[in-house]
Amino acid sequence: MGKYLDPRADLTFKKVFGEHKHLVISLLNALLPLKDDERVESIEYWPADQIPERTEAEKYSIVDVCCKDNKQREFIVEMQMTWTESFKKRVLLNASKAYVAQTNKGMKYKNLQPVYALNFVNAEFMKDVDDYYHYYHLVHDKYTDKVIDGLHLIFVELPKFKPQTISERKMQVLWLRFLTEINDKTQEAPAELLENAEVSEALEILERAAFTDAEMRAYDKFWDEVSSLRTIEGDWEDKLKEAEAKLKQKDVDFARKLKAMNVMTTGQIAEATGLTAEEIEGL
Question: 83: number of CA atoms within 13 Å, CB side?
């Protein structure tokens, strides 16, 4: 049993960033693609009735760290424990809702402020690239300096983060180390984290001794349910891979028969089976 709790859990993430304005300001300035004159200076948390609701399937996404700053820009911060392809669409939907909601307050179109959705993902989902930081926004496909400022979607793949992968943004490194290196087995926090005032304060909030028995039961229940969900998803993934392998083998067998008949070109066999020319030539 360690000294701290894991900051990625629902209870702990909310305690650190949903109850301490200066800490979420530090996190936003460290992780968002903001210029020096665009940094967040002060925030107010959204009222509870404005926070997007979660479905049963989405209950392991933390969507209650929502706020806006003194410039009326809006920020949604989430921690996604498991990955689904629909998650990106839900992020876009919630950010779009927040953007559109500004018009309900009588704001003119020219005064609409951007919405930033910062999403930490505790799983790898973009397996064909090495980068852990993914930033989506509206940009001209040819003239990339031409941007429509409105929706900014940021996804951070936590398992891919390594401290040596970024050096120019110290606070980004420290906060990502906080989220990836601290867990309920941690006996002693790294010196670099303790030396920073903001991260050190966040660590103090995470100390196991500061949580009540009821909070600890909620914390343990959260991780039990996440573990069960991952087991279920793993079983389905194995079954899907098995089904894909069987279909692939059927295509290979069919292609082999067509090739043996010597009545179709390699290109025609490829079109009929979905195999590549190289795969067919190797049969």
Answer: 16
Which tens digits make up the pLDDT trace of 68-102? 999 999 999 999 888 887 888 989 999 999 999 89
Q: What is the pTM of this model?
A: 0.76
Beta strands in the chain (DSSP E): 43-45, 65-69, 74-80, 115-121, 133-139, 147-157
Give the model's pLDDT for residue 51: 53
Total Cβ atoms within 10 A of residue 214 = 8
Of the candidate ranges 41-50, 136-145, 189-198, the one whose mean pLDDT is the lowest = 41-50
User: Backbone phi, then psi, for 224, in 5-degree steps?
Assistant: -60, -45
Q: CA 7, CA 180: separation in Å to the nearest integer?
A: 9
Contacts 24+ apart (CB under 8 A), 101-104: 101/50, 102/72, 102/74
- Helices vs strands, H then E, count in the chain: 9, 6
Contact 255, 275 (CB under 8 A): yes
Place of tokens 């200066």: 22
Average pLDDT, the chain: 86
Decide if 29 contacts 39 (C-beta within 8 A): yes
> Residue 51 to residues 54, 67, 95, 159: CA-CA distances in angstroms?
9, 9, 11, 27
- List 155's β-bridge partners, or say none: 119, 134
Residue 126 vs residues 122, 130, 158, 159, 237: alpha-carbon distances, Å: 12, 8, 12, 11, 16
Q: Does the pLDDT value for residue 233 go beyond 60?
A: no
Alpha-carbon separation of residue 136 from 32, 91, 144, 156, 211 (angstroms)? 11, 11, 13, 12, 37
